[in-house]
Specification:
Blueprint lengths: L9 E14 L2 E15 L2 H6 L8 H15 L4 H15 L3 E11 L1 E3 L9 E3 L9 E8 L5
Antiparallel strand pairs: 1-2, 2-3, 3-6, 4-5
């Protein structure tokens, strides 16, 4: 009886990315938790044990950091779209990517000047974190 593999995925969860943008004397904070899940034609990996075509999870994590540095973070959604597009177009066995981005809010502290002093907002049901999930396949138009 032949072995049949089901749908599988792998990735790196909860990569913490904090980016501070300086706009003159005023600073802006983007604080994201980014999780990457990749899936595709991984049968050969399981049948032969060769990881030659598997993107290592540390490379996935470092790609998140590099994209934040090189491209900035316009919005959590745009950042997720940009990452998903990269993973499905640059890695041959990867056919689908799911990027989950959770943005944590920060508030300015009312100090004199108050341009670059922040405190992370408390998690309350009244002020939830901002979450987005981007799913992209090779045939997706995004």
């Amino acid at each position: 009886m032949p072995t049949l593999l089901g749908q599988n995925q792998y990735g790196k969860a909860e990569n913490r990315v904090v980016r501070i943008t300086r706009d003159g004397d005023t600073h802006h904070i983007k604080d994201l938790g980014v999780s990457v899940s990749l899936s595709g034609d991984m049968d050969e990996v399981h049948y032969s044990g060769s990881n030659a075509h598997v993107l290592p999870t540390d490379t996935t994590k470092n790609t998140v950091y590099a994209f934040a540095k090189e491209h900035g973070i316009e919005s959590a959604e745009q950042f997720g779209i940009h990452l998903a597009r990269h993973f499905v177009t640059s890695q041959e066995p990867i056919h689908r990517a799911r990027i989950r981005v959770e943005e944590h809010a920060w508030a300015r502290i009312g100090t004199p000047g108050g341009k670059h002093s922040f405190v992370r907002r408390a998690r309350r049901p009244a002020s939830p974190r901002r979450r987005s999930t981007v799913r992209r396949g090779r045939s997706s138009p995004v």
